[in-house]
Amino acid sequence: MIRRRKTKVIKVGSVKIGGNNPISIQSMLKVRTADLKKAVTQARRLEDAGCEILRVSIKDKDDAKAINTIKKKISMPVVADIHFNHHLALDSIKSGADKIRINPGNISNPAHLKEIITASKKKKIPIRIGINSGSLAGRFRNKGIVACARKYIKFFEGQGFRDIIISLKSSDVAETVFAYRKLAGLCDYPLHLGVTAAGPEESGIIKSSIGIGALLLEGIGDTVRVSLTADPIDEVIAAKNILASLRLRNFGPNIISCPTCGRCQVNLPKIVEEMQCKLDSPSKPYKCVRTIAIMGCEVNGPGEARQADIGIAFGKNAGVLFKKGKILKKVPFRNAVRELHKLILS
Hints:
Layout: E1 10-12, E2 15-17, E3 24-28, H1 36-49, E4 53-57, H2 61-73, E5 78-82, H3 86-94, E6 99-102, H4 110-123, E7 127-132, H5 140-143, H6 145-158, E8 164-169, H7 173-184, E9 192-193, H8 201-217, E10 223-225, H9 232-245, E11 254-257, H10 268-279, E12 291-295, E13 310-314, E14 318-323, E15 326-332, H11 336-345
Parallel strand pairs: 3-4, 3-10, 4-5, 5-6, 6-7, 7-8, 9-10, 11-12, 12-13
Antiparallel strand pairs: 1-2, 13-14, 14-15
């Protein structure tokens, strides 16, 4: 059982971050925010995939203005991602942004920060202090992202503003983990986890799973974004898999399956793929089944998969269905997926 770090609770639109609230999943539009047709289409795809907070990049006034329209088309809260120009933060707040993300590496003028804080206070929306190691300026390049975070937290608190979420991202997994771990002991603000610029899908998922997963195991982290050079839907799926693998969230049944070896006499990868496709159907309720085992031989059968709610273990051209380790019946290979799915729904 993972014991989560105690934090303040910050509300982003309808989503509560921190405390005992579920660890939320975020992603970001990868199309121009002002291109409303593409932006809304992608936002809806993300929402359907399970994204709970949407971030959009704000490069100009047209992007900021688009927030108002996008919000009318989706249910997720929208976060405005601001760099360099503090006026765009003010425009985004006027347009209805549910949270502002600023980067201290390129917005550091105290007067500009005060304007953002004042506007955020008036609209009662939070600010994420999003620090990336690659954009640190001046003396903080040597002191590091934790020192930068502490400086900005102190400044915000000095303005009487505590609706803060913090992120400390690096493309280096170890640096990311060490920074979050250190800051977690220094404040009680919710933390947004991620490994920035993690890279293409396959290697990026590995880096993100190690970095985000390591922190979540320690109870650190309140909202996550997996950053991939890929379709943003893949980011959401990866985040869901990370959270589900640690049993921090439940998004439906989890398949456990053996890697296969010379004992396996069926096309197990094909069966697993077919079963996963059925489970991905959003219209099917699977609330009573958490773990499904699909095993290639008697060695990895009901014995080793006893912890599964239901499963199947194959011999030659046939398999035995089992529930909580108890064998129910034998089914032919060609009917395996259908019979297993029927058992899930029964």
